[in-house]
Amino acid sequence: MSSVLSRLDTPEARASLYQFTVYLPGAVASVFLGIWLSLHGIPADQIGLINALPMLGLLLLNMVIGRIADRADDWRTAIISISLVSAVIPFALYFMSEFWGILLIWALTAMSNGLVPPIIDAATVRMTKRNGTDFGAVRAWATIGYVVGAAGIGGLLTVVGPGAFVTLYIAMTVIRAVLGFLLPRFRAPAQEATLANVPQGAPLQRVKLRDSLKPWFVLPLIAFALVNASNAVMGSFGALLWHQQGVPDHFLGPLLGIAAVGEAVLMFAWRRFGGRVTARNMILVACLAGLFRFTVLAFAPPVQALFFLQLLHAFSFGMGYFGVVHFIANWTHESNAAEAQGFANMLNQGAAMIMLVTFGWLVEWFGSAAFFASTVTCSVGIVCVLISLRMRPPKDATRPAVS
Fold it and tell me: What residues does the Major facilitator superfamily associated domain cover (predicted)?
């Protein structure tokens, strides 16, 4: 028992435990929300708006919250505070049954939930870099949590029905808030300024994020935002579309869960091959995988093909997200780590918001053929990465995800 406790006492283990809960609420929403909304008589175009409005709020909040988190004594404080807020707000969903009320409360719920990932990931990648440990092995537990939420808890859909959505969602946010208090400190201990460690005449300055926002830096972030917008569509409309296409309900949770299984395998295996691929090439692979995955989905393939296509999520999201996190970590300063990740997340949310609103309308008219919109966005993403690589060629790819 003491050896187990000692292993859990490492910063990486405690961060992994919290990471396991990061996407549990979102996983429950991926399976239940669309069907729960449909039960309340809300059509697909309004479901798109309900999923898109939080993105607008996150556009405004992500960088602000990231800047506040960067200036705190440690990112841990911000993570715990946001986790607590995100556990309280969804209780109001018990009292909502019509469109405008659900729109408002779900916006606040999803916004508070969406502020968690960029800060915990920015904090974790800095901590693991400093400790010489594996970010992928820590971050993979977030994906495993999503698998449990989508395939495990989502499997309860056929047992308890979509009416249990609010209770299950709240349970996941409460668990996450409680485990937040076990998080370690992420920043290195503050070093006293002495003549030995401060060069003569070198003022201590805070590096500003805007100094990094050159076109070659921003384009790959835009590319991932474009492909990830379609990943967001899968979370909001995937289960609903498959349900309408006649896919049995007992397949819905596993279909969403297997996407995360592939992502987790990639993250655990990352250290074996990550040093051979530069960050922008990882984003390029994500765009190519997304192009194939979403184009095939437009043809409403059978359930057997859906499982294969869902495994490509490991590349259309997992590899691309790793590319973005490492790209940002290697080209920005620790003093604006969460703000920089918040900027990338702002792009993600903006693209997702536009895609969700558009996709909801397209689904009403074209059904699964709406995924051809993703064919276009992934193609634009490929062009963005290629332009960035031409503007600033990558560094030596023998080091992990350097460029």
Answer: 32-355
11-22 vs 135-147: helix axis angle to the nearest 10?
A: 30
Nearest CA to 378 out of 304, 300, 317, 302 is that of 317
Task: Give the pair of three-digit tokens for residue 9.
Answer: 């006492």
Q: Give me the DSSP letters along 125-154.
A: HHHHHHHT--HHHHHHHHHHHHHIIIIIIG
The helix/strand/coil state of 333 is coil
State the average pLDDT for the chain: 82
- Mean pLDDT along residues 308-336: 84
Residue 86 has pLDDT above 90, yes or no: yes
Place of tokens 């536009």: 354
Q: How far apart are CA 142 and CA 148, in angstroms?
A: 10
Domains of the chain by residue range: 7-186+209-391
Predicted TM-score (pTM) above 0.90? no
Q: Does 292 have pLDDT greater than 60?
A: yes
Query: What kind of fold does domain 7-186+209-391 have according to CATH?
Result: Growth Hormone; Chain: A; (1.20.1250)
In this structure, what DSSP letter does residue 301 have? Answer: -
Contact 188, 313 (CB under 8 A): no
